[in-house]
Write a structure and sequence with these properties.
By secondary structure, the chain is of the alpha/beta class. It contains 15 helices and ten strands.
Length: 340
């Protein structure tokens, strides 16, 4: 495994707001960083302007951050590869890494989502797609971390998770700064489930805001959403305790409450009466919870895990169920014990 105390070359695949933010953070630590953009013309624009005016304006690129038009060139020459593409594009991106020798490399995924069609977590997609890649080489970096704040070096805490404690600590070492505090966790299943489901709950919280409901409703959505997250985590072999950490309740709170949250924004607009197609077509960036709500709903049905908030969000987004009727049906379900 790579010794991160040695000179480190890093590739960040994906030049959205989060990929750009992490590339700048790592470059400021002194690492040699290659930032790959999916579209060659966008890569050339980034290289020329030395900032990402489309997704992260006014954040200058350090001199040791280069922009690459070639995914293979960036990844093959790097010891640490960060995948920062949208979750539904991860498999397509990973397919392009199949011919790279991964011995001695670590791959860190930062996209939060569950794959449509397969219901797989992002680490599972990587392991399934890249030949010879071992679980101990894969990590996830999740937590309450809006790019808008991290790029301004505001205090942030996240978790680096890998089945290998050694790998988690190496990722921690690579990313940790005085304002970007990184913890470790070996429950990558729990971390990925928590970090993905929270986006669905954020859409529900946004719908509540859009309708005009108050703090009571928001608190209920967050709390019962946490219960759904815990049940799915347990069913898939993760530790339910993980959902009380940074990737769970930490990210859940910030995504449900923040003005920066794309998922909360989508929900708010749905609650105000706009259609999903209209909202998404006018957005500059991806709201991962839209696709994840479908993937997780289908997964919960397959596994027999009760997730009523997730089901309600799915019905509103994809079955066009009227918002008020969906909320009424959710609230008038059979009464239950709080813990079951």
């Amino acid at each position: 495994m790579t010794n991160l105390s040695e000179p480190l070359r890093i590739a960040v695949l994906g030049a959205g707001s989060w990929g750009t933010t992490l590339a700048v953070l790592l470059a400021k630590k002194g690492y040699s960083v290659a930032l790959w953009a999916h579209r060659p013309e966008f890569a050339r624009q980034l290289s020329s302007e030395r900032e990402n005016r489309r997704y992260l304006a006014s954040v200058s690129f350090p001199d040791n951050l280069r922009v690459s038009e070639s995914l293979l060139d960036a990844a093959s020459s790097s010891s640490l590869i960060v995948t920062a593409v949208p979750s539904q594009a991860l498999r397509e991106t990973a397919e392009q890494l199949r011919d790279i020798v991964f011995e001695g490399k670590i791959i860190v995924n930062v996209a939060k989502g569950i794959e449509l069609q397969t219901g797989k977590r992002m680490s599972e997609v990587l392991l399934e797609t890249i030949p010879g890649l071992k679980p101990a080489q894969v990590a996830a970096l999740y937590g309450p971390s809006h790019a808008e704040e991290v790029s301004k070096e505001q205090p942030t805490t996240v978790v680096a998770s890998s089945p290998s404690q050694e790998t988690a600590r190496k990722v921690q070492e690579a990313f940790h700064t005085s304002m970007f505090r990184v913890y470790t966790n070996t429950d990558i299943t729990g971390v990925e489930i928590a970090g993905s489901v929270k986006n669905i709950i954020a859409i529900a919280a946004g719908i509540s805001d859009g309708i005009g409901y108050g703090d009571n409703a928001k608190a209920a959505i967050i709390t019962r959403g946490l219960a759904e997250m815990s049940r799915l985590c347990d069913r898939l072999g993760g530790d339910p305790v993980t959902v009380s950490g940074l990737s769970g309740i930490g990210d859940l709170v910030v995504t449900c409450l923040s003005r920066h949250s794309r998922n909360r924004y989508v929900g708010e607009e749905i609650g105000r009466g706009r259609s999903l197609d209209d909202v998404v077509s006018h957005m500059n960036m991806v709201a991962e919870g839209v696709h994840t709500s479908k993937a997780v709903y289908e997964l919960s049905q397959k596994l027999g895990v009760e997730m009523p908030i997730t089901q309600t969000v799915y019905q509103m987004l994809f079955e066009k169920k009227p918002v008020q009727q969906a909320i009424l049906d959710l609230m008038t379900r059979e009464p239950k014990d709080e813990v079951y």
